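Chapter summary example: a protein plus nicotinamide-adenine-dinucleotide.
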Amino acid sequence: MDLGLKNKVALVLASSKGLGKSVALDLAKEGAKVVICSRNTTELEQAKQDIERQTSSSVLAITCDLLDTNQRADLVKQVEEQLGTIDLLVTNIGGPKAGGFESHDAEDWKHLFNAIFLSVVDIITLVIPKMKAQGFGRILTITSISSKQPVDNLISSNAMRAALLGLVKSISNEYAPFGITVNNILPGFTTTERLKDLMEQSPNQKQAIDTIPMKRFGRPEEFSAVATFLLSERASYVTGVSIPVDGGWIKGI
Ligand code: NAD
């Protein structure tokens, strides 16, 4: 299937490793003009080289701390100046801290609101006018299974990601007439550094695997295959949905 991604300008946030990097790699394989970003310039440069080695595409790498409003604005400006209008936006950021209600204070909640919710609102605000003007756009927010079913000991993710689902559903309705689709993708337990960190804090990795009907963790490429389809021309009639890639972990129908 031709996904129609060739030469599309794709900004993938928080993409020096893990799920973001895997999405960037798949998009580059499809011939998109991919932009990756993260805070750590060395890791970012390694990711750029890694993706370029595996594809025939060249990747633009921009160092950016997504927690910073000015850096977010500068990121979008640089992409537009160097590659033109952003066709595909994938929002992502490092995962929130683990813990229950009493391990979070007011400062934590403010930080998490900025990281998980406001940063996404802000970047979408920056890219959407040009998508609207050109009559095409794909916005995909990487959230979590926690937005549909709370994960034990991850209260900040459980609370904040659900808000993103409401945001995405609402803006998908507003921008559908302009050829822009807006969807959520919900990773389940997937083998990245984030999962390794969480498992180090968790008493028993086998217990986590036992909760997954497929009885194994997912692989980043299983996640990015679904993301890439949702970002493609072929997914033109899919908007406002929240798709889990979780080996069946979410129990609801
Ligand atoms: P990861 O730790 O492997 O990668 C995170 C990426 O984000 C890195 O490239 C890092 O440099 C970048 N990053 C972090 N903070 C940043 C910032 N302020 N500015 C710019 N870049 C920043 O994590 P991952 O497993 O790929 O997870 C990605 C997202 O998906 C996280 O929000 C995580 O909570 C969520 N998620 C992951 C899983 C999983 O099992 N892997 C499950 C559910 C949800």
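Key point: The CA atoms of residues 35 and 60 lie 5 Å apart.
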